């Protein structure tokens, strides 16, 4: 309900026409939620959760704090959605590599690691893996997010193990190897690669690290 300001009556007793309230010209710019989420993801990825302030997020996203809360609920929930976006993008680029037809298990890992080395080393922000980088500087009062990030990392490790076990069933990986231990080793190498990338390692240097790790691959 609009409340107007009463106008005084002109001489003669007739009511003067009420002045219509002015309206802003043009239509307000639509809020692009996907673009805002992409911007937030890049900030969390490069700076970590705790080091990324709410004021930085709203300034980069081009919105006011109330709009951020209306769209995402909280900084914590925005971070969760950012992590999910990162994982979706990672899977869209690399998800099918380990299960590409006609590849041995080792060949699949070699291909995946080459892509990871190029991605980590070629990223201008030198951010490495978001599941590792997001914890740089700590998580502050949201320390419980650490377990959520750890669960995502365990999921990737489980994917590594599943591919190694598939190789054992298909006969290109010896059954004598502990698939869980090898998967954990390869997962730890990839996580360490993220720190190397943040420290300035080139794609070539990162790839050599991964090739060195694959020398531990058991003979068939």
List keywords for this structure.
220 residues, mainly alpha, Tetracycline Repressor, domain 2, 9 helices, 60% helix
Describe the overall structure:
By secondary structure, the chain is mainly alpha-helical. It has a single domain, classed as Tetracycline Repressor, domain 2 (Orthogonal Bundle). Helix content is 60%, strand content 0%. The chain contains nine helices and no strands. Helix 5 (105-122) runs parallel beside helix 8 (179-198). The N and C termini lie far apart (78 Å). 24% of the residues are buried.
Provide a short characterization of the protein structure.
The chain is an all-alpha fold and 220 residues long.
Q: What's the arrangement of secondary structure elements?
A:
Blueprint: H1 33-47, H2 54-61, H3 65-72, H4 75-94, H5 105-122, H6 130-133, H7 145-170, H8 179-198, H9 203-214
Helix pairs in contact: 1-4, 5-8, 5-9, 7-8, 8-9
Low-confidence region ranges: 1-29
The percent range for helix content is 55-70%
The number of domains is 1
CATH superfamily: Tetracycline Repressor, domain 2
Taking the alpha carbons of the first and last residues, their distance comes to: 78 Å
Oligomeric state of the chains?
A: single chain
Could you say which overall geometry the principal axes of the C-alpha atoms support?
elongated
Structural class: mainly alpha
CATH class: Mainly Alpha
Number of DSSP strand runs: 0
Order of helices and strands: HHHHHHHHH
The largest sheet is: none
Radius of gyration: 27 Å
CATH architecture annotation name = Orthogonal Bundle
Per DSSP, the total helix count is 9
């Amino acid at each position: 309900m609009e409340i107007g300001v009463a106008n005084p009556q002109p001489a003669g007793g007739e009511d003067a026409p009420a002045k219509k309230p002015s309206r802003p010209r043009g239509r307000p710019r639509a809020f692009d939620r996907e673009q805002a989420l992409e911007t937030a993801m890049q900030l969390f990825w490069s700076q970590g959760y705790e080091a990324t302030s709410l004021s930085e997020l709203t300034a980069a996203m081009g919105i006011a704090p109330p709009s951020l809360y209306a769209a995402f609920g909280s900084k914590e929930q925005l971070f969760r959605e950012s992590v999910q976006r990162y994982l979706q993008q990672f899977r869209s680029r690399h998800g099918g590599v380990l299960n590409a037809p006609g590849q041995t298990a080792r060949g699949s890992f070699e291909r995946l690691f080459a892509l990871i080395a190029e991605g980590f080393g070629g990223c201008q922000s030198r951010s490495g893996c978001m599941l590792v980088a997001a914890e740089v500087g700590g998580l502050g009062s949201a320390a419980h997010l650490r377990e959520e990030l750890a669960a995502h990392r365990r999921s990737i490790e489980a994917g590594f193990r599943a591919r190694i076990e598939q190789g054992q069933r298909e006969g290109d990986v010896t059954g004598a190897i502990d698939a869980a231990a090898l998967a954990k080793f390869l997962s730890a190498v990839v996580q360490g690669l993220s720190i190397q990338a943040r420290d300035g390692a080139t794609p070539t240097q990162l790839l050599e690290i991964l090739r060195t790790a694959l020398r531990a691959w058991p003979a068939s």
